[in-house]
Structure formats: C-alpha cells, structure tokens
Automatic annotation (TrEMBL):
A Pfam family recorded for this sequence: RtcB
Reaction catalysis annotation: a 3'-end 3'-phospho-ribonucleotide-RNA + a 5'-end dephospho-ribonucleoside-RNA + GTP = a ribonucleotidyl-ribonucleotide-RNA + GMP + diphosphate
Protein name: 3'-phosphate/5'-hydroxy nucleic acid ligase
EC number: 6.5.1.8
Lineage, uppermost ranks: Bacteria, Pseudomonadati, Bacteroidota, Cytophagia, Cytophagales
Native source species: Pontibacter saemangeumensis
Mitochondrion among keywords: no
InterPro entries on file: RtcB, RtcB-like, RtcB-like_sf
UniProt keyword terms in alphabetical order: GTP-binding, Ligase, Manganese, Metal-binding, Nucleotide-binding, RNA repair
Organism superkingdom: Bacteria
Cofactor(s) for this UniProt protein: Mn(2+)
Amino acid sequence: MNAHQLKGKDLLKIGYAPGKAVGTALALMETAFKEISKEEQLILLSKVLCSPSKYQEDELWAPLAEALLPPKQEVVTPLLPGAKDYVIYGAEGIEAGALKQMDVAMRLSVTVGGALMPDAHQGYGLPIGGVLATQNAVIPYAVGVDIGCRMSMSLYAIPPDILTTQPAQLKKLLLDNTRFGTATFKNPQDHAIMERNEFADIAVAKGLKDRAFRQLGSSGGGNHFVEFGTVELHDPENEFSLPTGNYLAVLSHSGSRGLGASIAGHYTKVAMESCRLPQEARHLAWLDLNTEAGQEYWLAMNLAGDYASTCHHQIHQRLAAALGERPLAVVENHHNFAWKEKDAAGNEVIVHRKGATPAGQGVLGIIPGSMATPGFIVRGKGEANSLNSASHGAGRVMSRTKAKQTLSLPQVQQYLLDAGVEVIGSGLDEAPMAYKDIRQVMQSQQDLVEVVGTFTPKLVRMCGDEKYMEKD
DNA sequence: ATGTGC
C-alpha cells in the first residue's frame, strides 16, 4: 500500500528463512499490529524469531511460533507384520472386537508376551481382560483409566445368618459408611497417603490432591460396589488358618476415583504425543521407562494404586467399626495395574493387567461374579501361559447400552428376588443377566487358579442417584 | 472408569 508497509524482504533481512513463517508473520502484522510502525513490528518479529518456544502457548503468537520451530516428529513406529502368539482362555465366549484389539497389542515392537482372560471384552487400547508384557515400556491405556481398581474382602467371625435376621441394620451400615457416585464424606478421614511426596513432586498429582482428599474412602460408580455376603471356605489348608465353613464377608470393588482417571488421561496424552503409532494402535502409545515421563507415570500410577487401596481400607475399617468386630482375614488385589515381573527366562518385563487378577503361584485374589451370582477367593497356580494372571470377573455378555435397552426393571427385580439378593442403587446395565456365567468362566481358567472359598452376595450397594446423601 | 463436558 505504501512505502512503510512491511514486506517479506524485510523479514529475510532480520533473519527469517524463506517459507511459511514469513507469510504467517506478515499476515499477523496486517491483522493485529497494523497501527504500529514498521520498526516496531520488526522488533516484535525478531523477538519471536529468537525464541519461538516462548510463544508457543501464546494465543496470538502461537501460529508464528509453530511455523518457526522445527517440525514435530511425526515418525510413525510401525507395527510388526504378524501378532506374537498368545493364549486365549475361554475363546468361545470372547467377542471379536476384543480379539482384534489383542492382536494389535501383540504387534507392538515393545511387546514380549500376552494373554487374554475368559472375561475379556473390548476396551480402549488393550481389551479389558488383556494381559500384556513389554520390554522397558509402560502403556497407560494397557493399565486402564481406573488405575489400581481392585477387590478387597474381609471375613468375620459373625454368624452369616445376621444377613437374614438383621437385614435392615446391615443396610443402614452400608448407607452410612459408603459413598457412591458424586457423593463423598463430609469429613474425609485423613490418611498418610495424602502426605506422599508424589503429591508434591509430580506436577499433575499436585493439582489433583485436594479432590483426592475429598474423595478418600468413596466408591465411585459404574460396576463398583460394596456388599455383604457369605463366604464358604472350602480349603482346609487355607492361608487364613481358618476352619472350613461359612463366614460373614464384606466385599468391595472400586478404584482410584478422579485421581487415577486424571493421571491416566494426562499420561496417555503425553504417550500419544511422543509415541506415534498407526491408527488402529494409537491408544497403545507407550512411555519408555528410561524417560522422565515414563518414570513419572510409574510413580503416579503407584500413587493411584496405593490411594485405591487406602479407599478400600477405609471402607472396610468403617464397616468393621460399625459391626464392632475385627476381621478374621482380609484378601485384596489390584486388577488394573502394571508390575515389574520376571519372564520365564528371568528377564524383567513390564506386565500390564487391565482387568486381570494377578495369579502367580500361591497368590490369593478375588474374582466376583455379578450382583446375584457367586464370586471366588482364588489361589494362583502361576501358569506362565497366562502371564500369572486370571480373569477379574465374569465379563459382560451385554453392553451397558444393550442391557438398558433390552432388560426391564421388573425382570431384574424378579431375578434378584429369586436369588435372594437385595440391591441398593445400581441400574439395569449392572443386572446379572448382562454378565457371563461365572461358573463357565471359572471352568475356562482351571489351569490358572484354584478355588479357596465361594462368596455369595446378599446385600449389595452400587451407584444409584445419591447426590443428596452428604451426611457423615 | 470420570467434577460422566474441548
């Protein structure tokens, strides 16, 4: 327009390289800095040229900064042409989508082994019920969104007929001492977990600490539950040194609440930015354990796991106090986690279990059925083909959506009545009919675990609509 | 799974 108009040539003089940045800079000056002098414009532009990374987050300057910075590495790490071998337990009951996802996971360059449990179904990245061993890499989505999600069971010396003689009292205990959905305890019980260094040392965890404290001891939603039932101990050689017979039991299933979910979300994003994979594998992006991000995730994952465990301990402590008893025995296990373990050759591998129960030789775990079917205290057999794992439940036979569409409330209520189970909260999507037959699932994993005791649920609490419940 | 949403 006039002699004072900034030209591309002026930019080349101050060191701009011919290319996209020049055009971006000129357009920016034209739209946002029209009124200042050419000299002033050049001063601004040379500042951005000197340190573009400083302007990456700036709303106005970001496009220019991006154009000046070296192009992001978009190198895609290819998948192996064929999937490594893995054993599928209960293959006849596993949906195609889960198998397909497992096949993709078995083609990652970092994968050294895997197995699919009989309750497997499609998830994000690795299927639920998938076990994956990698070399020096951790995959946030192979751990799962609910990091450290776990089972915990307490056995009591109380005669289990209390379930039929005092159902109202037990129901009150559950309502008073557990919190579901968005409800939390008005005065959360403080715990040493909140003093962990990770909350101070890891930037992401720091921002999650306050909410984590508010949610301490709560159960969340989805398939999480706290329930009373009966355990029949079958094995006279049980690890609890208890006589065989029937015991009152409390069983809880929940995870790391918003803490783990946010950690999972954050590090998955970090992984997907640094580890580009073909479209069908993108959610399996990993973090190298030798990198800062990898080590940070490992620490954050362990924090979330310990937090999940603390929540269970508080749930069980509250109920124990309300019952006025101390438990005779406690069994507990994570099923969404990654561990450093040794493979058959003695090499250290990272074993991801996403909805799979650790089942090393002699390791105790809990595999529940559904709200109205039996669950099992199991002892691992240490089967190498399953990577020392077993299922974490019965697995769905119906998606949540399908369950809500096809099941009716009276139908589910009748089923529960017949089973002698009372349920507080929950929705049709958690109905027993939405789950596989747990007996069949247990049959498929006879090589993986042996049954120590059988749990029969009686009074179940799950997430309903208890936003109104805030009392302590 | 999730302050159930960029």
